[in-house]
Amino acid sequence: MDALLIYFSTPINVYFLILISFSTASIIIIGRDIKPIRNYVLKFKNINMNSMLLKYTRSLENNLSRVLSDDDIYSFTEIIWVKLDNKLVDINLNYVKIFRDYTYEQIISNNTNLISAEEEVILNKNPTQLKKIIRGKQVLLEIIKIKKENYVIFKAKNITSTNDLEQLFIKQNETNLQLMNQLTNPLIIYDQNKSPIFFNSSFKSFFSLDDDTLGKKPNESEILEILRQKKLLPYQANFREWKKQQLNIYNTLENREQWWYLQDGRTLRVISQANPMGGVTHIYENYTDKLALENETALLLSIQEQTINSLSEGIILFGTNGKVKLHNHQFNKIFKIVDNIQDLHIEKLLEEILKKDPSSKFNDILINVVSSGVNRKDHSNIMEFNKNILHYQSSILPDRSILYTFTDITASQNIENALIEKNKALSEADYIKTNFLNNISHELRAPLQNIIGFSDILEARLSNINKDQNIIDYINDIKRSGRELHHQINQILELTDLESNGLKHNQIGYSADNLSELLQSELNKLNFLDKKFIIKIHKEYKDEAAKKNSINSGFFKVFNQLIKIIDKNLVMDGDSEYEIIMSKITDHEFDQYIFNISYTEPINSKHIQSYLVMDDIYSPGSIEKTILEKYSQILGYQIDLSSEFNEFKIKVPIVAHES
Question: Would you call 644 helix, strand, or coil by DSSP?
Fold first, then answer.
């Protein structure tokens, strides 16, 4: 059944089936006119009716005045009866068979009629069809009435089977015509006189022929001439000779196939089928789109081949049978293959590859490829081949073919190994630095604490017993230098923690009342500075911040660094005191903490409008600047210093602040 479906899936085979159907039906119709076989066949066919035939023969022997001839009596196809003055006078064997319960004499004597008197009236010498019930079955009889001298002879043929076949043929013919009319390919059938007897709607539309033109029933020569005028034929230098060759099929009766390249760019495959009884069938298959698709496919395959051959990765595709379906030049180059490996099974392929490097491992790839399609899986790994490092990866395609990609990562692997070694060396150096700083911080802090401690003791005792101000100033200088050096060491350690992300921050709760205490605590850590700073909270902010808030501890570190930077850039030298008033403004992005600096003016000094010199507010490479940038980067703070308004701002992102 599948083979039949495949066979009839192509248009040309359907057309030939239709032609065969036409031929078969023609033979059936022609068979009606074949002369009946002689009556001796009847005798052999009806051997089971010996008793009836014997009775009928005896009747013939007793009745010497028969009207019917022997041919009529033993007719194979006709039912014959003779009447004289509306009385049966003679019947043949077929008539007796209809009334088989009666003998010849009984039928004649009883005047047993097959048809009624009314039906006899309408009969004449032309065949007339009548439906009758014979032995419980409806049959169709074709009857003629012949007058011979005083006799009326009736001859009837049972055409029931023939009529059924004719109806079947008509229906089949109508079905075939409907089928051909629905075909997308143009089709036309000519008879032996080259006149069209059928054409489908595709033929009309494809060649732009209207009903008026085709209604005139032009022959094939005239239709070719019309198509030439419409420029729907291939261009011919000698059209007369070409048309002669086209029409020669009516003489040769040889089937043919042609390719027509029309002047409008379309391409037709013309199949011509000669009818042995005369006539030709032409089928026009439009191959324009198919050829365009084939050309496009060929182009895409060419582009695909060029593309995969230009890849730096090796590509190979295995079918479900484990054989190579596709590969590129880079695959051959990686595995040093010189022979053609197309359609080679993977086992044979690996035999060739292992000759180059027997130590290579392909077990996972082999198992995956030889597995059945449903058991194949995507996988990847790294392997070595011929001292090169390869990364391979598989991909399962929809048809269960498996595609492998091989990438030579030798160079990148060497770079990665070098980077790992370098990173290891840097980690070791960082570890040494950290240990050094931890050790040196202890070794420096201990003597500094001693210096600062003994300086405090000396200052206390000398202030009581020695009024020499110079000695007291010297001791103060020692204390200040010690504290500053101690602070710088802490700065270095803090910077180290920031660079290694080891410094931890937490949220510190505050209110307006204790915020000044927290900030003043940071200022007190800077007691080695010449200048003194006093922090105050603006009254309006106190009222606004009645409820408790929180801020990151890094905020106070940033404040500490800014004070040291500002200390270096204030215009007043020597011991002096400054007041810092803090306020706060909130917008949709930041909480802005604003610190305004004012100078507590000593006696006999002039009022100064600006206290900050902003030209060189940041010393390049200073530790304060470095720590400030680190904190700002980690916490997302923004710093703004203004000499015009003697203030600096710390902008804290709201999101970071709330977190």
Answer: coil
Is 167 a member of any domain?
A: no
- Of 103, 125, 158, the position where a domain reaches its end is 158
Encode pLDDT of 179-226 as tens digits: 777 788 899 999 888 889 888 888 888 888 888 888 888 998 999 999
**Residue whose entry in the numeric block shows the structure tokens 């037709």:** 268
Who contacts 377 (Cβ-Cβ below 8 Å, separation ≥6)? 368, 394, 396
Tokens (6 digits) for 412: 């990148």
User: How far is the C-alpha of 123 from the C-alpha of 162, rounded, in Å?
Assistant: 21
Residue 413 Ramachandran class (φ > 0 left, ψ -120 to 50 alpha, else beta): alpha
DSSP one-letter string for 506-574: -EEEE-HHHHHHHHHHHHHTTTTSSSEEEEEE-HHHHHHT-S-EEEETHHHHHHHHHHHHHHHTBS--S
Q: Are 99 and 91 in contact (CB under 8 A)?
A: no
Q: Which domain holds residue 474?
A: 414-489
The pLDDT value given to residue 65: 56
Looking at 391, 408, 425, the residue that finishes a domain is 408
Distance of CA 587 to the CA centre of its chain: 50
- Mean pLDDT, rounded, for 317-336: 90
SS3 202: helix
Is the pTM of the predicted complex or chain greater than 0.70? no
| Burial profile 578-600: b = 16 or more Cβ within 10 angstroms, e = fewer | bebbbbbeeeeebbbbbbbbebe
- Could you tell me the CATH number of the domain that includes residue 370? 3.30.450.20
pLDDT at 51 over 50: no
